[in-house]
């Protein structure tokens, strides 16, 4: 994010945390070594910032890139994006397996344990989708926005039900 796009009153800053006292200080980002203003930031403010943080799809996609260490299997597959498509299928299968077992073992009764399990599995599917999109230079926000527009158009035209992508 460039400084011009920060909300009014915001500054670009690094945070320093003293682990012994839990004091948190913001250090102005535009400074030479050893210079700059240091301001104390209360722990409650930091907790609120963390609580209010909402990740957008593109930020998520950038974070996924950091955890993609690649594999030998990925290097052997041609085209390389095939690895990610297979990952989507595999993780989707694991999600379906959790749903199957919900009905087999718990009579379809959803509890917190089930929710926690499917959150993790959906996250795995989403990770592979983010990495697959990257292979084609497609950002995740574009995918989400395009899908919402498509569905809104179908609803407005009374075409939510039916078959085919271009209905």
List the topology elements:
Elements: E1 13-17, E2 24-28, E3 38-41, H1 43-52, H2 57-67, H3 72-76, H4 82-106, H5 112-134, H6 140-156
Antiparallel strand pairs: 1-2, 2-3
Helix pairs in contact: 2-5, 4-5
Can you walk through the features of this model?
The protein has 167 residues and is mainly alpha-helical. The chain has 2 domains: 50 residues, no CATH class; 100 residues, MazG-like (Helix Hairpins, Orthogonal Bundle), CATH 1.10.287. Helices cover 54% and strands 8% of the residues. It has 6 helices and 3 strands. A 3-stranded antiparallel β-sheet has the order 1-2-3. Helix 2 crosses helix 5 and helix 4 packs antiparallel against helix 5. The longest helix has 25 residues. About 5% of the residues have low confidence.
Summarize the structure.
The protein is mainly α and 167 residues long. It has helices spanning 43-52, 57-67, 72-76, 82-106, 112-134, 140-156, and strands spanning 13-17, 24-28, 38-41.
Largest sheet: 3 strands, antiparallel
Mean pLDDT, all residues: 80
Strand content: 5-15%
Overall domain count: 2
> What CATH architecture label of the largest domain applies?
Orthogonal Bundle
The CATH topology of the largest domain corresponds to: Helix Hairpins
Shape category: extended
Secondary-structure element pattern, one letter each: EEEHHHHHH
User: Alpha-carbon distance between the termini?
Assistant: 38 Å
Uncertain runs are 29-36
Please tell me how large the radius of gyration is.
22 Å
Largest sheet strand order: 1-2-3
């Amino acid at each position: 994010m460039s400084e011009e796009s920060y909300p009014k009153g915001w500054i670009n800053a690094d945070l320093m945390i003293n682990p012994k006292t839990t004091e948190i200080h913001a250090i102005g980002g535009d400074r030479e070594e050893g210079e700059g203003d240091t301001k104390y930031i209360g722990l409650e403010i930091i907790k609120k910032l963390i609580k209010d943080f909402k990740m957008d799809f593109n930020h998520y996609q950038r974070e996924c890139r950091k955890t993609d260490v690649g594999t030998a299997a990925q290097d052997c597959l041609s085209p390389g994006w095939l690895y990610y498509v297979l990952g989507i299928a595999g993780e989707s299968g694991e999600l379906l397996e959790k749903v199957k077992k919900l009905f087999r073992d718990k009579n379809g009764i959803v509890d917190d344990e089930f929710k926690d399990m499917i959150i993790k599995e959906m996250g795995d599917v989403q990770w592979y989708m983010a990495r697959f999109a990257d292979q084609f230079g497609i950002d995740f926000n574009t995918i989400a926005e395009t899908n919402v527009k498509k569905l809104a158009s179908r609803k407005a035209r009374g075409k939510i039900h039916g078959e085919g992508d271009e209905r």
